[in-house]
Amino acid sequence: MVSKILDQLPLRTVLIVPFVLQIVGTVGLVGYLSFRNGQKAVNNLASQLMSEVSLRVEQNLQVYLTTPHQINQTKLDAVKLGLLKMDNLSAWEKYLWRQVQLYPYINFTSVGNNKGDYRAGQQLSNGSRMINVIETSTGLNFNSYNTNERGDRTTVTTIAKNYDNLQHPAYQKAVKIGKPTWSSVFVSLLEPTLLISAIQPVYSDENQLEGVLFTALRLDHLGRFLNSLKVGKSGQTFIIDRQGTLLATSTTEKPFRTKGNKRQLFKVEESSNPFTQATAKYLTANFKKLDQIKKSELLSFEIDDKRQFLKVLLFQDGKGLDWVIVVVVPEADFTKEIDANTRTAVLLCFAALGVAVVIGILTSQWVTNPILSLNTAAKNIAKGEWDKTVESERSDELGELAKSFNSMAQQLQQSFETLEQRVQERTGELAVAKDKAEVANQAKSTFLANMSHELRSPLNAILGFSQLMTRSQTLSPEHQENISIISSSGEHLLTLINNVLDLSKIESGRTTLNPQKFDLYRLLNDLEDMFQLKADDKHLQLVFDRSPDVPQYIETDDLKLRQILINLLNNSLKFTDEGGVAVRVGKQSFGKNQQTEGGNFEQSEVSKNTESSAINGVKISQVSPSNNQIIATPNDDAASTFSFFLHFEVEDTGPGIATNELDDLFEPFVQTKTGKDSQEGTGLGLPISRKFVELMGGEMSVCSAVGKGTNFKFDIQVIAVDAADIESQKSSRNVIALVPNQHTYRILIVDDKQLNRQLLIKILSPLGLELKEATNGQEAIEIWDSWGPNLIWMDMRMPVMDGYEATQYIKGTIKGQATAIIALTASVLEEERAVILSAGCDAFMRKPFREADIFDAMHKHIGVRYIYEEPEQTDLSAIKEGDRAMSVADFVKLPDSLVADLKLAILNADMDLIDTLIEQIRLKDAVTAGAIANCMENFEYDKVLKLISQAISHE
Questions:
Q1: What is the average per-residue pLDDT within 684-692?
Q2: pLDDT bucket at 601, cuts 50 / 70 / 90
Q3: Mean pLDDT value of segment 531-550
Q4: Strand-pair partners of 264
Q5: CA distance 825 to 464
Q6: Residue pair 653/708 in contact by the 8 Å Cβ criterion
Q7: Is the bond preceding 169 in cis, omega lying within 30 degrees of 0?
């Protein structure tokens, strides 16, 4: 397949395309590898950067969060050394005031005793320092005092009433935990910033609670530190607790919201920064709850189809803090240069492609131009322009080729001039031979027409009078048998004549296909009934096997299909002495003969023979496909949808056909050795059958092995149709009289043969019709003119004046338009029908005809109505049940379970069960049940078992 495609490509394409594909493939592969390596580098760089950033954040948090606890420890040491007393907090004021100056990120450091007193040194973000006081003596009011440079109180700035420090959540938590820990995050009362307090309870030597130490850490310093970290170009870092509350962020967003006079914390998912919000939503969706994060994670996700790198780090200090550090960086921060390199690689790829195409075109032109010149010169020589030569100054291989071509052209010119003279002489001889052939062909056609008329006319009388005599009630059985012999012999002679004429029409190309819609199942059943008696006479099995998918109603030439199957079945039954004949029908998609299952002998096969070869000692005739023609239908658009092939096989167990006879099997008038020995047949059945198969769009082949049997196979193209399209066949009934109260019909019979006229008179006279006869067209015109018949039966070939001329004369008058003329002809040529109808005839009927056709034509064209003989009723009970021989087909038709039970009952000699089963069979087939009962009475058990086994194997 590939070689055929390459052979059709121009040479320039073959030279350019591989070169271009190599360049594109190389550049593309390099670009792809560069892109993949860039992606890996981005992933590694992002991982390293986020790991470094998260590590720095963790290290700074460790230092930053350790300081408040160290300050508390310093204060506790002062208490333990007795330098400061928990019951005298006034001495703490300047100590706390100086201590808060040392740490810019500490908001306040304070102490509260178990009496409710409280002292704190606080440093605001503007640098001013305050002393905060709560005393029970003043009513637990919270007073915030400004201080001078020595730490002395000056003025009161803030007063909160009823501020009980003992009830503060931080104090309560320190008491509850009993060791250093952290308070919850809260908003400062004095300025807008988030705070978290390191808290530590103070116990006396007797382990009595004396108070709590506080050191508040400013979280806005954490935000400034995070903001100082550069995470790519647009990356972010933020810290949240396990509940998702935002504590610090590298953005300018404040981690609290103001509603009225209150400042409130908020969830990170409520962040006003879209990047922060999208990251938080991804974390929530991925982990459901933040407390499910058990370890550090390196993740990636997408925002607006853009990839983001995400680092999640857990921070725990052992004193109650459990925070989550989140670092997120867009992939675009790393891939900008990579994308630029990718674009550069693509541009370089296109540039290289353009250069490759230009170089390829120049190279191909350099190679192909001389070849194109040779091609042009060769075409000119083919046109007869011998003076056109190839001019080439090259000395390479193409130059040598041009010189050789010019030399060859000169030799061809000389040879052509000699050949042209010989052709003219031969043409003259062929013209003379053609004229002779046309004359011979015309003589052959004339001979066939005359022979058809001269043979079929007497046969018309023989078969017609035979039909009339069979209806006689006075003939003795002996005479009835003689009449039957005469009729069958006439039918046989008609078949021989039709075969000769069919072959002649095939050879002259006059055979046409006449598709009809019909019931295939009925055709097969008719053939089975037709040949069953012949098979029974020779004690052979006749099996018709039809696949379930074969449609019942099809459209094709049913007469030709019927003739093909009859020819093949006749041959099979004629030459088979034991075993049987099988007919198989299946549906397939292609019109190709296929080996059928069950053909278990080594076979030789032939279809259309072209040459032969010997393989393993068995001669195999090679098969060349036929030019199958497609069946055309009036509504081909719809019908073509249902067009398919039917596969037929006719297999026998006869003597087989020798390999050396297969090549001539389908030649006319050629018989095999078996056929010659039988001294039957003409050798025309198979040639005609194969020609019919080819006409129906298929092909025929044969497989045979001497001593084992023969299998003929063929395919035909058909069209599936609906049951509603099939014309129902009328039952054949004998006409016995005319329906009363009809006017008198006048019928004119025109034929030069007395027997033919007499036959029609014998058929029509019993009905009381007025009849007249004429021997030629001239007499017919005279009688018609004077008598005015309603219908004329007109023979077309007669002396004096033939039927064509007489019909044209009658139909050329106004009076003649009211007279129906039906042509009777012995011609079998299909084109004769068109000639006859164009002469003016209303209908066309071939000899020999059936009397039913005569009556139907008269009813159709002049409205004659008949009284028919009532059909005889077949009384199945009148058939003696034991008189008919059983066959495998009888058991195949019965239910499988019933047959199996009968077999088991016979093997067990269970007579009661056998009688019961026979009665069940009688309900379905009384004749078969009677035959089985007869065998049982005569102890023929083996015969019944054998038929049952064959029926089971057949299925």
A1: 81
A2: very low
A3: 88
A4: 257
A5: 15
A6: yes
A7: no
Distance CA 217, CA 215 (A): 7
Strands (E), 537-665: 541-546, 553-556, 580-588, 604-606, 609-615, 618-623, 643-652
Q: How far is CA 681 from CA 459, 495, 666, 668, 684, in A?
A: 20, 11, 14, 12, 8
Model pLDDT for residues 622-645, shown as the tens digit of each residue? 333 333 333 333 344 443 446 789
Enumerate residues 6+ apart whose C-beta is below 8 A from 712.
568, 572, 649, 650, 651, 700, 701, 702
Per-residue pLDDT band at 670 (split at 50, 70, 90): low
Secondary element (H or E) of residue 323: strand 322-330
Place of tokens 């092939």: 645
Residue bearing tokens 């459901």:
288
pLDDT tier for residue 375 given thresholds of 50, 70 and 90 = confident
For 447-464, what is the HEC assignment? HHHHHHHHHHHHHHHHHH
Q: How far is residue 775's CA from residue 753's CA, in Å, rounded to a whole number?
A: 7
Bridge-based pairing state of the strands 643-652 and 604-606: unpaired
572, two tokens? 């099979």
Helix residue spans in 104-244 (DSSP H): 169-177, 220-228
- CA dihedral (853, 859, 865, 868) in degrees, to 10, reads 20
SS3 content of the chain, % helix, strand, coil (to 5): 50, 20, 30
Q: Could you tell me which residues come within 8 angstroms of residue 109 by beta carbon, excluding any fewer than 6 positions away?
A: 71, 75, 96, 99, 100, 120, 121, 214, 215, 216
Residue 789: band (very low, low, confident or very high) from pLDDT cuts 50, 70, 90: very high
Cβ 128 vs Cβ 122: under 8 Å: no
Phi and psi torsions of 482, nearest 5°? -65, -40
Cβ pair 345, 33 in contact under 8 A: no
Confidence of residue 881 (pLDDT cuts 50, 70, 90): very low
Q: Give the SS3 label for residue 730.
A: coil
0.70 exceeded by the pTM?
Answer: no
In the chain, what is the greatest distance between 2 CA atoms, to the nearest angstrom?
166
Mean predicted confidence (pLDDT) in 319-330:
86
CB 284 within 8 A of CB 259: no
Place of tokens 């450091």: 109
Query: Over 50: is that where the pLDDT of 903 sits?
Result: yes
- The 10s digit of each residue's pLDDT in 215-262 is 998 888 888 878 887 776 778 888 888 888 888 888 888 888 888 777
822, 791 in Cβ contact below 8 A? yes
Tokens of 191: 């300025």
- Half-sphere exposure of 247 toward its Cβ, with a 13 Å CA cutoff? 24
Give the count of beta carbons closer than 10 Å to the beta carbon of residue 380. Answer: 15
CB-neighbour burial class of residue 670 (10 A; exposed 0-12, middle 13-18, buried 19+): middle
Q: How far apart are CA 882 and CA 892, in angstroms?
A: 19
Question: Which backbone phi and psi does 814 adopt, to 5 degrees?
Answer: -65, -40
